[in-house]
Amino acid sequence: MLAYPDYGGENDVWIGKTLYRMPYMTNDVYLELAKLDYNNCQAMHYDEWKEEIQR
Fold first, then answer.
1. What is the pLDDT of residue 37?
2. Cα gap 29→48, rounded to integer Å
3. Residue 43 sits in which domain range?
4. Per its UniProt entry, what is the enzyme's top EC class, as one word (predicted)?
């Protein structure tokens, strides 16, 4: 898997001026979507890189 493994999930605690959980931002659905988006972006960059090399 290309995704960065420590991106964040539902059990993460965010630190600001106080410690708090962000139930609408820090959950496994967003984590999975972020991984898929990252992998898609990596694949697009790889394809672009291959095209440049073949020129």
1. 94
2. 29
3. 14-54
4. lyase
